[in-house]
From TrEMBL:
Gene Ontology terms, MF aspect: sigma factor antagonist activity
Coiled-coil regions listed: none
Pfam families found in the cross-reference section: RskA_C (PF10099)
Domain Anti-sigma K factor RskA C-terminal: 96-218
PANTHER family, per the entry: ANTI-SIGMA-K FACTOR RSKA (PTHR37461:SF1)
Any one biological process term the GO annotation gives: regulation of translation
TM regions (residue ranges): none
InterPro entries registered for this protein in UniProt: Anti-sigma-K/W_factor, RskA_C
Entry GO terms, CC: plasma membrane
Protein name: Anti-sigma-K factor RskA
Region (Disordered): 201-227
Length: 227
């Protein structure tokens, strides 16, 4: 492996990097391993890449991935030969080859959530066409509700409700802005009830429900994941 990090790898050195990252198709991997047993320089390249790639993770905090992530990565990478794509990627990744490739696989294929602490729910129409997306950040207690489609009936406002479970009465989280997005900073006692809870939106008279419970039509609802 070259000591000059500005020099892009190529030829056997690039193949050695692909071998370490398990990017070679099975038949090419077997051929490469036979060559490596007979070529000390090739084996040295593999060892150098293994040491180099291992250093990329030294400053990354330990994180236990959800079960099945690695099998999904393997199935997406190796279900069919992708030699031309890998050959296009490798020269441009240079010294950050391993980290960039793993990030590309995970993000592009949706194998991991961009933010494990974020809970997302689609609030689908129950009557009419109002559609929303709710995103709750558990670490900060911030809930963002974005309107994707539809509008409040004329002369009415939209109010957001939390239904913690089947036995709980709806609890108002506040009125939604007339614009498309509303950001709410929730107190800890309410925030801890959001995972797994149902969010519902009703239309109410100006100023919101006069009774503390929904009085108008429930226009959209959806459930946040529990984890």
């Amino acid at each position: 492996m070259s000591s000059d990090e500005d020099t892009l790898p190529g030829g056997d050195e690039a193949t050695a990097a692909e071998y370490v990252l398990r990017l070679l198709p099975e038949d090419e991997e077997r051929v490469f391993e036979r060559r490596m047993r007979e070529d000390a320089d090739l084996a040295q390249d593999v060892e150098a890449w293994e040491v180099y790639f291992s250093t990329l993770a030294e400053e990354v905090p330990a994180e236990v991935p959800p079960p099945g992530v690695w099998s999904r990565i393997e199935s997406r990478l190796f279900k069919s030969p992708q030699r031309s794509l890998r050959r296009r990627l490798l020269p441009h990744l240079g010294g950050a080859l391993a980290a960039a490739l793993i990030a590309w696989v995970v993000v592009e294929n949706g194998l991991l959530d961009p933010s494990p602490s974020e809970l997302v729910a689609q609030l689908s129409p129950t009557e009419g066409a109002l559609t929303f997306e709710a995103r709750f950040q558990r670490e900060t207690g911030v809930l963002r509700v974005d309107r994707l489609e539809g509008a409040a009936p004329e002369g009415r406002v939209l109010e957001l409700w939390l239904i913690a479970d089947a036995d709980s009465a709806p609890r108002s989280l506040g009125l939604l802005e007339a614009t498309d997005g509303t950001v709410l900073s929730l107190p800890a006692e309410i925030a801890q009830a959001l995972p797994g809870a149902t969010l519902a939106i009703s239309d109410e008279p100006p100023g919101g429900s006069p009774t503390g419970a929904p009085t108008g039509t429930v226009r959209a609802a959806g459930q946040l994941p529990s984890a």
